[in-house]
UniProtKB/TrEMBL annotation:
Residues 8-132 form the VOC domain. Pfam families: Glyoxalase (PF00903). This is Glyoxalase. PROSITE patterns: VOC. It comes from the Bacteria. InterPro entries: Glyas_Bleomycin-R_OHBP_Dase, Glyas_Fos-R_dOase_dom, VOC_core.
Amino acid sequence: MAARPYRQTVFITLAVKDVGIAKKFFTELGYALDARFCDEDTVCVAVSDTIVLMLLHEEKFSRFTVQPAADAARSTEALICLSAESREQVDDLVGKALAVGGSPAAEPNDLGFMYARSFLDPDGHHFEILWMDQDAVRT
């Protein structure tokens, strides 16, 4: 019997100040929650079938690391880039983020074959939404 193919999933774990605000923000962007992994200190956001955001209250987050959590409102801990299927989807998702409590992170970047916009979530985590014409960059 052959082994099942392994499907790799990326879990991005971030510290948040208010789990309720984080939950509201990401559900209003249209992402689904995985209730199996949500509790009063955790929000599990299914970005896709292979990307999951684990949003942990700062106190719970601190139990998983020996270093202090970065204050994303004061420094950039990471740039989280998510792909979009079209330029319109980039604008739609960033527009929703700005309408429900996010803030602009940088000016749009339009290279013709690639288009990106970014936002900060309510805790200051930096998200970039990117569309790329794959045919234009193939060699």
